[in-house]
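Sequence dictates fold. Below is an illustrative record:

_____
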Amino acid sequence: MDVLSNLAMGFSIALTPFNLLMATAGVIVGTLIGALPGVGPVSGVALLLPLTFGMDPTSGIIMLAALYAGSMYGGTITSVLINTPGESASVVTCLDGYQMALQGRAGPALGVAALGSFIAGTFGVILLMLTSPALARWALSFGPPETFALMLLGLTTVTGLTGENALKGYMSMLFGLMLSMVGFDIISGDARYAFGIPEMMDGVDFLPVAIGLFGLGEVLVGAEEAAELHILQGRYGLRDVMLSAGDWVRSRWAIVRGTVLGFFIGVLPGAGPTIATFLAYALEKKVSRHPAEFGKGAIEGVAAPEAANNAASAGAMVPMLTLGIPGSATTAIMLGGLMMWGLRPGPLLFEKNPQFVWGLIASQYIANVMLLILNVAFIPMFVRALRIPYSILMPLIIIFCITGAYAQKNAVWDVGQMLVFGVLGYAMKKLGYSPAALTLALVLGPLAERALRQSLIISDAGLGIFFLRPISAVLTVAALAAVAVPVARALRAAASRIRRVPVPAPED
């Protein structure tokens, strides 16, 4: 009954005219952002975060969460029609979606993606609603050692999975932790690493960093890679995207499997929607009666990953809301937004801000219905949006970056920070480092430092306190394993390569 009464309260908040407007704006802008190659949900959330200043936090998170859900579908449109994923979670959809479009079946590909996204998104919100309160109640027993161990686990697992190279991911994380230490010491009050610059006494602001890394940085990378898009011609009206009985029979269990797998992958810190889509595609191909059709236009190859990425986006909300640990790069930006609004993500969020949490959950049901209508009835509108040249889009995004960074405090210093981190973000992308790991460390760094120092103050055993309490011991060991396992694999691979090098025969 608690869940139902809380959900009813959430709907009373989400159905207010302004919050409905925010959800509508979020799904439309999110779908556009997901559809435009080179922008993506992380950049979209970072760019739109400044718009939530002065807004009620519930309305702000409703818009950002709707944008996140919308971007998950938007990437499908470009994957199917131009064989270019709008964001990383849609890469797998290209394999069969584009082949279906070449066979004149772009409509059913987009239709099954919309239907699968709706089912998975709705089921994901139901699981989010049922699992989050229980997880939050369990996390209420956490003291500073458990909190630090949890932050450590989040940092190590997320960082290890945010890039192609784990070492570069950890180096990015360490740089983010260093940035999080700039400013006044939380215990002694002494200035740290500010170099006498007054603006740095308050630390490095999250928002200019996020806008620079994910907004300006992505624009600079996109400017290099921009190319003319060739969109397949076809009919994308309501009748064209409706599934036939045969398509529905083939895709229904793929949607179910993708939904379940996607949600639980999304809950894992660091896994995120992209990994969920690859695993869902691999699972579907393995259980299929006709695996040879995968890669040649199998509708299950579109249904499973599209269901998985939408379920994973709902799953990623679970650790963010209940533990304060983001499940993906996009939720890391949203986590920073929560802190900017003065909210503390974690188990107390459900007790102290029930209107915020349940308003967000209820709005996700509404956003999924909106997305289904939008992405079935208005596909031609989004196809036309794809024809906007990047030469027009790029200056608009740069203007948005500058005004967004300036709007927080009306300070030119923040614009300068954004420009510096924009160039840094570009360099990190080109060199294979992880801007997401840097941002995550910047967000979690102050929380982890506070928990670490509180733990050491109350401890007589020094660092041993993290291994003497059951929960913190398990979390700490898991965090250490998250670092040790990739290192051990790398060392074993290096040793194997050395053994394979032929030893020259001794000369007589």
In short: Residues 168 and 336 are 23 Å apart (CA to CA).
